[in-house]
Amino acid sequence: MNAGTQGIRIRRVSSRKRSRDSLQTHLTPARKRGGGDTCLQQCPRNRRLSSIMAQIQPYCSDSEDLFGDYDSILEDSSLLAKLDDAEETERQRDLQSAAHIVAVDQQDFIALRPSKDGAWKRSGEDILTDSILDGLGDEPFEDLPGSQVQFQEQVDENVKRRRLQEGEKTSTPFRNTDTEAGRDRNMEDKTKRRSKARRSVTDQLKRTMLCNAAAPSNVSRTVVLKEAVVSEEISVAMQAMETVSAETTDLGPFFGLPTKVKDLMHKLRGIKNLYDWQETCLNLDCVQQRKNLIYSLPTSGGKTLVAEILVLRELLCRKKDCLFILPYISLVQEKVRGLASFGLELDFMVEEYAGSKGKFPPVKRREKRSLYVATIEKAHSLVNSLIETNRLDNLGLVVVDELHMLGDGSRGAIIEMTLAKVLYMSKKTQIIGMSATLGNIRDLQTFLKAENYTNDFRPVQLKEYVKLNDTIYEVDPKEEDCFRFSRLLNFKYSSAMQKIDPDHIIALVTEVIPTHSCLVFCPTKKNCENVAGMICKYLKEEFLQHRQAEKAVLLRELRDSGNGSVCPVLRRTVPYGLAYHHSGLTSEERKLVEEAYSSGVLCLLTCTSTLAAGINLPARRVILRSPYVATDFLKRSQYKQMVGRAGRAGIDTVGESILILQSKDRNMAQTLVCSPMENCYSNLMHDDGKGITSLILSLIGLNVNPSLLSSDFLRGTLLFVQQQQLCAEQSLWEVVQQKVDLLKDKDLITVTPDAQTLQVTKLGRATYKGSVDLTHSDVLYRDLSRGLEGLLLNSCLHLVYLVTPYDMISQCKPDWRIYFRQFTLLSAAEQKMSAAVGVPESFVARKAAGQTGEKRKKTQRQNGMRMYLALVLFSLLKETNLWSVADRFQLSRGFVQTLLSSSSAFCSCVLHFTEELEEFWPFKALLTELTRRLSYCVKAELIPLMEVVGVMESRAKQLYNSGYKTLTHLANADPAVLSRTIENLYRKQASQIVASAKMLLNEKAAALQEEVDELLTVPSDLPTTPNTQQLT
Questions:
Q1: What is the distance between the alpha carbons of residues 855 and 871, in angstroms, rounded to a whole number?
Q2: Lowest mean pLDDT among 609-613, 964-968, 1023-1027
Q3: Looking at residue 584, which CATH number applies to its domain?
Q4: 786 burial type by CB count under 10 A (0-12 exposed, 13-18 middle, 19+ buried)
Q5: Which residue has the higher pLDDT, 711 or 583?
């Protein structure tokens, strides 16, 4: 396929319209030709039908008639109509011939005479039939399509057979001695025979022409299309798809996909054409040959679309499952919502693996293929479950977004473990990595055995600037100090305003808003709120008038999401078209703010660096309030990710970024804006080798590499590629042996009796299958064991305490007086339970009184912190009002939201942990329901609606109150009616909600159907006829 081709076009083969007078053929009935009715004009013997089926006309799709806008190969009207007309004429002639035959029979002979050219003619002159048969000749039609060759051969055979029959019957005159009745029957038989001969050819022509227009039954469609000179591109595309059958030629036009996919891209995404680099990338030899690929482009370059096309090709053409790995839950949910409509239209499943969602192992589907969209942690668990069930080969493609996160601490280690397992266990699974530009991309290529494609394309030109005092400099690496003077700020500041805004942020933002959009990245969450409030103080009244009604709607939605409460900062800033965005907002508030900014209702967001790594919210101008994130100086990758948000494709012609500097940071900033990208290093050794320890445990548990002597697997890791830099003090094999000893000490693995291999203990299996941190597995086991001894069941506080995440304890700084007040509200049984886990009332009372007293054990302090978090969750489950709970405990609502989502995910991990340990069987049913409650934290009747991606609590209440009370209601809703019924719901949002509901409903129905099929399937090991010998 050519690099620039976006689709495969099928050439239409048809005849050109020519003058009826100038082009008469031997297929034309005699009465239609010049020269009279009785003179049969002979055409040359070597004339072929290919002269009639002639020129190549404009392109058409494969669903169009292959005969083009022509309806006849006879050049002047429909062939079928002509045949019907000729047949009717011949019937009339048969009646006339009948009278003639009676007269001849009465003369006791039938005259048969050869024509001058040796062809036999009957007195009835079957002009249509014989003229066709005589004119075809005996030469083979080498260039005809297969169906027409088949037809010609059948006609030749019929001609030969009839000539032999007629020759035998009429080689000599004979006397007829039949009676009058016999003569009548003979006449009737002869008439029928001639009529049947004509009809057989007529019917054959009809059938053949219809078969040519459709797919012939006994000639494969691929062969017919090739013989009909159909586009050469299809052949190239089909050769690249090694497993596509000969019947699937319609998968070719759009990069190996049906034209329907291109139509859906236009309909659902508004994408008509791909960028040149996207076409080039999709047509790379390594992509066509299904080799691994890493491609690197700047932010907003359109990387994701290429990955989605490759995913669709794998699902539809190769009929294989796919895994799409994204770094954040919000991105997973956005991707699931965006691809649900494609899944419904193209008949594949889109399954979410994020937070507490996801089934391990995934449902095994016989009919449909699945696209698993997963966070980094869930993707690792998914791959483990596929390896354990020997189903990894069903995974045809793994796509990793933000591949450079391999260098990001513990999460980078999980990505490396996941990809290393796929590489080692499946040679058929292709890996595609999307990445920012990296300094050591070759290391990643070696690790993944991948090709690399790099391009610096941006749909909108980016101009980078820095601001120092009141001067703007353009970033230019060619300059000696990287900065070139651009302009002076032209904005009059009063002395009071200069004190409040010394960095001239107001001047910079008012140059673009409200006509264009702007993002202001701030170093801290508190600074985001302060900057948004400061800007509003100095904006003119005209900002209040801009899209005033829509901003009022946004405030009302924010109030509904908070059950009547609105953030005071947002209440003040939203009327001016401003808002802040950071983790202190609830997920519903963030979603509303993002949608309002995308639609232009909000023109400015003050935000932290996490927005740059999350959902795509581009702007005309991006301002970096400081070159710091908290107290850490920006990394080159962070800087590029932030400034990459500048420039909105299809809206702006240019994007601008401005980094605000203080004089003391000038030298560091020069390095920041002009230095090459950082290198990416393996993180398996991060945090005292926690990653490689976890990897060794799972490898032994999955029986991937149980031998002490084998090192094949580790040779396929990024750590092995970079061992000279990362394992300078001790070799990689020494590190491995050290971690094996550690796992033995923790009683997670043991050595087999023959001392040749390692095997996991029950606790080890529970640890890796539950994705529990190795530092917490033994603590979790002890807590669950103690819980069984006195599990409190008349309240969920005990269970909530057991699933409160250990890694949230360090973020907890309780107000001990509030803690004590809430503790005293517990029942006697709940306080007794608290004392049983090591947090008695006396401990909380002393802390509330400010008594430091004796140094308490570290364990008691941690248990006390964990109980405080459990009280927050306990209150949240009872009230389901996040705002009131956050206010009661004096915590930010964002922190409470994070605690809730982390707890639901950890509850899911603990559930899988207990499933592997028989002694914890009571927890299975209890934790299943608790996971569900923590995941949504709403009233029970809203949970079915909240399961739909994109439906938050306030929207679920709207839907429920409007009569959409179940998943089935929502899946069968009309988007147009839904958008009219639900206040402030746009048609596009309604369509996405309905599509997501249908996808979820299909997923649940398919899972049930698979269970039914499995139950009804006859076991393959069913015993045969029993032996005649019976046991006594």
A1: 24
A2: 1023-1027
A3: 3.40.50.300
A4: middle
A5: 583
> Could you read off the pLDDT of 10-42 as tens digits, one per residue?
444 444 444 444 444 444 444 444 444 443 344
- Domain co-membership, 434 together with 343: yes
Q: How far apart are CA 342 and CA 999, in angstroms?
A: 10
Q: Say if 75 falls within a structural domain.
A: no
Residue 439 is part of which domain span?
259-454
Burial 236-252 (b: 16+ CB within 10 A, else e): bbbebbeebeeebbbbb
Kindly tell me if the per-residue pLDDT of 744 is higher than 90: yes
Encoded tokens for 318: 């190769």
Secondary structure class of 287 (helix, strand, coil):
helix
Please tell me what DSSP assigns to residue 16. Answer: P
User: Do residues 982 and 884 share a domain?
Assistant: yes
CB–CB of 416/408 below 8 Å? no
Least confident of 640-654, 730-744, 933-947: 640-654
Domain presence at residue 770 = no
Please, is 151 exposed, middle or buried when counting C-beta atoms within 10 Å of its C-beta (0-12, 13-18, 19+)?
buried
Inform me whether the pLDDT recorded for 167 exceeds 70.
no
What DSSP letter does each residue of 208-241 carry, written as one string?
Answer: HHHHHHS--SSS-HHHHHHHTT--HHHHHHHHHS
DSSP secondary structure string, 863-890? HHHHHHHHHHHHHHHHH--HHHHHHHHT
Q: What pLDDT is stored for residue 601 in this prediction? A: 94
Q: Which tokens in the block code for residue 148?
A: 């027409």
The rounded radius of gyration (Å) of the Cα atoms in the chain is 39
Q: Hey, which bits of 430-517 come out as E strands? A: 430-435, 450-454, 461-468, 471-475, 483-488
User: pLDDT value at position 222?
Assistant: 55
pTM of the model: 0.74
**pLDDT, position 435:** 85
Percent of the chain exceeding pLDDT 70 equals 74
Shared domain for 393 and 510, answered yes or no, is no
Cβ-count burial of 853 within 10 angstroms (0-12 exposed, 13-18 middle, 19+ buried)? Answer: exposed
Number of domains in the chain: 4
Candidates 588, 977, 1000; CA nearest to 964 is: 977
Q: Which CATH number characterizes residue 736's domain?
A: 1.10.10.10
**644 domain-assigned:** yes
DSSP string over 541-572 = THHHHTTHHHHHHHHHHHHHHTTT---HHHHH
CA distance 237 to 231: 11
Q: Write the CB contacts of 761 (distance below 8 Å, at least 6 apart in sequence).
A: 747, 748, 749, 750
- Residue 965, pLDDT above cutoff 80: yes
Residues 903 and 950 in one domain: yes
* Whether residues 358 and 483 fall in one domain: no
- Specify the amino acid at residue 296: S
Which of 454, 482, 498 corresponds to the end of one domain? 454
- Beta-carbon neighbour count of residue 444 at 10 Å? 23
Asked if 626 and 520 count as a contact pair (C-beta separation under 8 A), the reply is: no
Give the 3-state DSSP-derived string for 331-389, with helices as H, strands as E and coil as C.
Answer: HHHHHHHHHHHHHHHHCCEEEEECCCCCCCCCCCCCCCCEEEEECHHHHHHHHHHHHHC
Q: Which residues have a Cβ under 8 Å from the Cβ of 368 and sit 6 or more positions away?
A: 347, 348, 349, 1006
Angle 257-261-263 (CA atoms, 0-180°, nearest 5)?
135
Q: What CATH number does residue 930 fall under?
A: 1.10.3380
Q: Which two tokens stand for residue 950?
A: 């994109």
Last residue of a domain, one of 674, 708, 735: 674
- Contact predicate 487/330, CB 8 Å: no
Closest CA relative to residue 147, chosen from 13, 8, 244 = 13
Pairing of strands 370-374, 10-13: unpaired
Interatomic CA distance for residues 45 and 62, integer angstroms: 34
Is pLDDT at 664 greater than 50 in this prediction? yes
Q: Are residues 450 and 467 in the same domain?
A: no
Is residue 111 assigned to a domain? no
Same domain for 471 and 351:
no
